[in-house]
Design goal:
By secondary structure, the protein is mainly beta. The protein is 4% helix and 34% strand. The strands form five sheets. Strands 1-19-3-6-13 form a five-stranded antiparallel sheet.
């Protein structure tokens, strides 16, 4: 029969979307809440290369996601904190007080080789996954750790400073956002990170070479949604 019938009311649920910090005050008459919390995604860093060098970054990690059913009284007066995406840094976590928390995604790693030679191979480990989010009130309906990113690589089979294989990992994806795609190339030049979409996703990995620099990028911000039932 659905949650509305169980609650004994024909009034439609109200979805309250929070994109900035505030304090939760329930709508009058609310008897049950569905709380969704996602941390902000991780960004990618900046770096510079020498005239004969190359560098690659990995994608940033996604923020964690949690969905909790609880009573309005469980979270009334709690501070809603919405995770912030940082250019070149980790995403911060989102939370409802200290009772529902979801960590932000980690910033992508990078590596630079300042002298490309025949058979040069470089690998950079990706951003780590987050811990599983937690709630100490209500019933946890879903809890997903923030997705990390895979490693990025470059390979120069002939030692050329004009051609190489560059494979940069994508940013982490989550329940509410798609990570930015990583950039893959066979020509050494430079690129800019492609940002993720939605909420909580990580920026995609990118590369630079031959004296170029890579500009840092940000992941996508976090989000808190509280759907109230009457």
């Amino acid at each position: 029969m659905g949650i509305r019938s169980v609650a004994g009311s024909s009034r439609a649920p109200v979805a309250r979307v929070f994109t900035s910090n505030t304090t939760y005050t329930p709508t009058a008459g609310a008897v049950w809440c569905l709380v969704e919390v996602v941390g902000a995604g991780g960004g990618t860093v900046s770096f510079s290369t020498t005239a004969s060098g190359i560098g690659v970054s990995t994608g940033g990690g996604a923020g964690a996601y949690i969905r909790v059913g609880c009573l309005p009284s469980d979270i009334t007066g709690k501070t809603i904190t919405v995770g912030v995406a940082s250019v070149g840094g980790n995403g911060s976590g989102s939370s409802v007080g200290s009772v529902i928390t979801a960590a932000g995604g980690g910033v992508g790693n990078y590596g630079v080789n300042n002298s490309i030679s025949a058979g040069s191979l470089g690998t950079v480990n990706g951003a780590n996954a987050t811990s599983t989010p937690l709630a100490t009130v209500g019933t946890v309906l879903e809890a997903i750790a923030g997705q990390g990113s895979t490693r990025s690589i470059f390979y120069s089979p002939g030692g050329s400073t004009t051609a190489a294989v560059v494979v940069c990992s994508s940013g982490g994806s989550g329940k509410m956002g798609q990570g930015g795609p990583g950039l893959n190339e066979v020509y050494i030049g430079s690129s800019s990170a492609i940002l993720g979409t939605g909420y909580g996703s990580g920026a995609g990995g990118a590369y630079a070479s031959n004296g170029a620099s890579l500009t840092a990028a940000a992941g996508q911000p976090g989000l808190v949604i509280i759907t109230e039932y009457f």
